[in-house]
Amino acid sequence: MSYWSWDSSLSVGIDVIDGQHRRIVDYINELEVARLSDDRDKVSEVLMGLVDYTRTHFAFEEDMMKQAGYPLSVSHKRVHDAFVAHIDKYLAQHESGKDVARKLMSELQIWLTNHIKNDDRDYAPYAAKVLDKSWLKRTLGKFFG
Ligand SMILES: [Fe+2]
Ligand SMILES: [Fe+2]
Description:
Layout: H1 15-36, H2 40-68, H3 73-95, H4 101-127, H5 133-144
The structure holds fe (ii) ion (2 copies).
């Protein structure tokens, strides 16, 4: 896999969300660096960070969608949950000694691109309405604080 660079085709038009998606892209690139260095401890560390950050991002989005009254928030959460369960399987395989980083990265890239461009972009017009400064500060603190 070559390094994945963010470009505006992945923007949902909401800075705070774009920033979180960019962080996930960065994590995927860090995973590639760790994988190429053949450092299993580093791969584990980046994998844990990636999974943890992705879960937090999903929780943030779910809170935001709910707050915004987005009509598809329940099915969107279901998509997140299914993906987290899928990633957890990879984590378990990694922990049992299998080399899953490469496959996981390519799946993540495909899944995220598709999810951001379709599902995430769909909530954007609703979410934009609730994203005032005080809500943002409170909610970022709640999930990322
Ligand atoms: Fe997202
Ligand atoms: Fe999402």
